[in-house]
């Protein structure tokens, strides 16, 4: 299970930061001259690109893989994990470093990566249910 979570987190960070951001190259709202004077910047603006939000991608990926691995045993874990990931994503927009679509697509990307890792995890015929029972 730890390997699945680490693999998910590593893959989500790499794909969001290195693959998507470097190919899309969308400027952050806090660096965009058309937008930055209309907002209250609450944190220092990063110099990197905006799309997709790596925070949203990473947190949704980890939350999703944990939900997929644990929800059969602990069904209650779904809402707290997704609420945690959503609060991180919302914060990125609130502080002015991402556009809403950056975090929405980041969340979708994170979920997709977690789904893929979970598929690989299940293909190995190894599950948490086999450990617990």
Structure, described:
- With 133 residues, the chain is mainly alpha-helical.
- It has one domain (2-40, 50-128).
- 65% of the residues lie in helices and 0% in strands.
- The protein is built from five helices and no strands.
- The chain has helices spanning 2-24, 54-70, 78-94, 100-123, 128-132.
- Helix 1 (2-24) packs antiparallel against helix 2 and helix 2 (54-70) runs antiparallel to helix 3 (78-94).
- The longest helix has 24 residues, at 100-123.
Q: Please compute the radius of gyration using only Cα atoms.
A: 16 Å
Main beta-sheet annotation:
none
- Structural class call reads mainly alpha
**What is the element string, with H for helices and E for strands?**
HHHHH
The total number of structural domains is: 1
Compute the number of strand runs: 0
Poorly predicted ranges (pLDDT <50, ≥5 residues)? none
The CA-CA distance between the termini, in Å, is 15 Å
Helix fraction by DSSP (H/I, runs of at least 4): 55-70%
Features:
5 helices; 133 residues; elongated; mainly alpha
Question: What's a concise summary of this model?
Answer:
By secondary structure, this protein is mainly alpha-helical. The chain has one domain (2-40, 50-128).
Annotate the secondary structure layout.
Blueprint: H1 2-24, H2 54-70, H3 78-94, H4 100-123, H5 128-132
């Amino acid at each position: 299970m730890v390997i699945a979570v680490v693999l998910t987190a590593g893959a989500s960070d790499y794909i969001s930061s290195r693959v998507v951001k470097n190919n899309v190259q969308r400027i952050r709202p806090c660096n965009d001259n058309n937008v930055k004077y209309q907002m209250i910047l609450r944190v220092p603006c990063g110099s990197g690109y905006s799309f997709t939000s790596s925070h949203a991608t990473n947190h949704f990926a980890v939350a999703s893989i944990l939900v997929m691995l644990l929800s059969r045993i602990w069904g209650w874990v779904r809402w707290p994990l997704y609420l945690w990931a959503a609060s991180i994503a919302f914060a990125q927009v609130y502080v002015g470093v991402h556009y809403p679509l950056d975090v929405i697509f980041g969340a979708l990307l994170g979920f997709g990566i977690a789904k893929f890792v979970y598929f690989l995890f299940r293909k190995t015929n190894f599950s948490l249910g086999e450990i617990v029972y």
